[in-house]
Amino acid sequence: MAGNATERARIVIVGGGLEGLAIAWQLAERGESDVMVLERDTLCAGMTGKSSGIVRCHYGVPSLAAMAWYGVEVFTRAEEIFGTDIGFRQTGYIVGVDEDNLTPLHANVEMHRGLGVPVDLIDADTVRSLWPGIHLDDFAGFAYEPLGGHGDAYMTGMAYGTRARALGVRIRQSTDVVRLVSDELGGVRGVLCDDGTEILCDTVVLATGVWSPALASTVGVHLPIRAQREQLVLVDQGEPTPDVPTFSDLVNLQYIRREPNGHLLVGNSDHSAPEIADPDAYLNRATDGFVETAIGKLDRILPGMPDPRLASSYAGCYDITPDYNPIIGPSPVDGLFLAVGFSGHGFKISPAVGRLATDLLLDGISSDAAVDGNDFRYSRFDEGKPLVSLHPYAGAGEMR
Q1: Cα separation of 235 and 265, whole Å?
Q2: What would the 3-class secondary structure string for 41-55 be?
Q3: Block mean pLDDT (10 aa), the chain, length 400
Q4: Which residues, 6+ apart, have CB-to-CB distance to 355 below 8 Å?
């Protein structure tokens, strides 16, 4: 539409990635279809496509574990809900720890069981039966979620968008929001697009990930979010990897999952020295040093790889908060709702993000007794009350 026009919607969602589309879908399922999603590029073209797609409920924050469990339910029923394959593969999920982390492992498993998550403590022989050839001498204990696995964030986000559209949500691509629009009292009442179009609304939902701070600042809201560059490598073992569970190695601080073509995707679980990056100008491949370290770690637990070689690599950016947990809820400015700072958790909890945001927008309270919406409030940082794991793991506490 040519410049200087004015349009209206009840709710405008800025950001057509996984979280924005999940919120649009869940709003529409609740009957609120006067919703417009604005995406500056094409749907899911940002960090959504960089997700490693791990599906697990293994968190030390009860609300996150419950949200991830709801995600498993939705992913498992995807064909029924969305009428399409979203790439979810229920391979199972294993987390392995050393002696020092046995206590938090057992405590987390008990907490997960209390939430209804199917999870078992298993021994090394059981792990070897699930993943032949794996070397486990450095590990002291394991937890296994048979319903976990991995998925495809791009396919999932597109399914959310397709369902939202079918229910009446308007989605616009190649529509760049340059600033938020305030009224005379300072409340947010819309957005201004780069072509001059002003879209007025009751509520703006900001779901632009690593790009959120700049837009929030146009109405004086400071978001404590930084872009943390994360590198991933794809390894060809020399022969296709059979179907095996996703493996979270909290000894060597890495995670491993099988790709559909039989390669292994290897990611980093060591966040002790985060690399802060410009989300619009960062190296989109793994460095030689990271590749060397990642393959060295991999070789320690898979020493029998026939002919390992680097197949490819890429990098993305997490939108991290100080406590590595998201902000979901009202901002300090009236009319601006935040769904930002997912810190690497976003894919697995995205169905629950959509549901929680919808609950808070329409009802002001979470509909899930196991998910306390107050956990994710913006003000927790100023209050000095970060959201942290009840049972953190040494070395990987930020992401657990």
Answers
A1: 7
A2: CCCCCCHHHHCCCEE
A3: 76 98 98 97 97 97 98 98 97 97 97 98 98 97 98 98 98 98 95 97 98 98 98 97 97 96 96 95 97 95 95 98 97 98 97 98 98 98 97 79
A4: 26, 70, 367, 368
> Distance between CA 284 and CA 120 in Å, rounded?
38
In this structure, are residues 193 and 175 in contact, taking their beta carbons and an 8 Å threshold?
yes
Tokens of 86: 């979203």
Q: What is the pLDDT of residue 398?
A: 62
DSSP, collapsed to helix, strand or coil, labels residue 305 as coil
Where does the chain have alpha helices with state H? 18-29, 62-76, 78-82, 102-114, 124-130, 153-166, 212-217, 288-301, 346-362
The reply to whether CATH 3.50.50.60 applies to domain 6-50+154-223+323-399 is yes
Global confidence as pTM: 0.97
pLDDT for the residue numbered 162: 98
Give residue limits of the domains in the chain. 6-50+154-223+323-399, 90-147+226-320
Q: ∠ at Cα 102 (98, 105), nearest 5°?
A: 115
Task: Quote the CA–CA distance of 97 and 141 in Å, as a whole number.
Answer: 6
- Contact (Cβ atoms closer than 8 angstroms) between residue 75 and residue 81: no
For residue 395, the model assigns a pLDDT of 83
Which residue in the block uniquely carries the two structure tokens 């947990």? 325
Question: Which CATH number fits the domain 90-147+226-320, given the four candidates 3.40.50.300, 3.40.50.1220, 3.30.1330.40, 3.30.9.10?
Answer: 3.30.9.10
Q: In degrees, to the nearest 5, what angle opens at C-alpha 126 toward C-alphas 111 and 103? A: 35
Rounded to whole angstroms, how far apart are CA atoms 113 and 18? 28
d(CA 293, CA 288): 9
Residue of 200, 166, 203 lying closest to 28 (CA atoms):
166
Q: Which residues have a Cβ under 8 Å from the Cβ of 325 and sit 6 or more positions away?
A: 61, 64, 341, 343, 345, 375, 376, 386, 387
Q: Are the C-beta atoms of residues 130 and 245 closer than 8 Å to each other?
A: yes
- Which candidate, 269, 233, 237, places its Cα nearest to that of 250? 269
Q: Residue written as tokens 């005379």?
A: 184
384 dihedral zone (left: phi>0; alpha: psi -120 to 50; beta): left
